[in-house]
Amino acid sequence: MQVPLQFEFQSHQTFASYYAGQNAEIVGQLQSLAAPNGEQQLYIWGDTGSGKSHLLQACCQHAKAIGMDPFYLCLTAARLPPPAVLEGLDDMALVCLDDLPVLAGRADWQQALFNFYNRHRQNGHKLVLAADCPPKFLPFELLDLKTRMGWGLTLKIQSLRDDQLIAALNHKAHFLGFDIPASVGRFLLSHYVHDLPALWLLLDKIDRATLAAKRKLTVPFLKQILAGEL
Q1: What sequence ranges are listed for the domain Chromosomal replication initiator protein DnaA ATPAse (predicted)?
Q2: What global pTM score does this model have?
Q3: Overall CATH class of domain 21-156
């Protein structure tokens, strides 16, 4: 048996730092995954930037905290590891696989994932899968693998409305330790991209700037930050 690679926990990507909005059911299902009556397989899909990776990381950290043995693997096209990385993962109590569509056209990976899936499920372990489309639209040539991706509970991440985006910004800011006044929130949504990963990166930049300047966040101060003056 090959010892699986270690993965790095993203300590800031927890359930506490995630704004659920209309996705409370998904959070609840992921949190209850470790319970004896929890789902054996969850498939989560949503648009790019909707928070799938955050949820999978949070699921792993929650599982680790309650004594499970989790593993997270992001299937990044630019640095996709050899499929042998799956060897030994069928012994892990929880495996989270992120960005499944990357495996399109990779017959070696699809066959390896199919074999892993059967062993892992037979062992009674838990599996969380993430993609930007429902299971039936996965670009897999191995149809039996595509079918198995849809065997468990499938849930879609709902996009946030503008009012929920402001609430999400406030939630994340409070987690980082600062406040976003209503005027600043409205300015951001009116003049900045409605892209969650970009907004989270901006919040980190705002956090550093407010700490360095020892100033509260205002619209003029935000303009300075956006202009790169700080």
Answers
A1: 91-155
A2: 0.82
A3: alpha beta
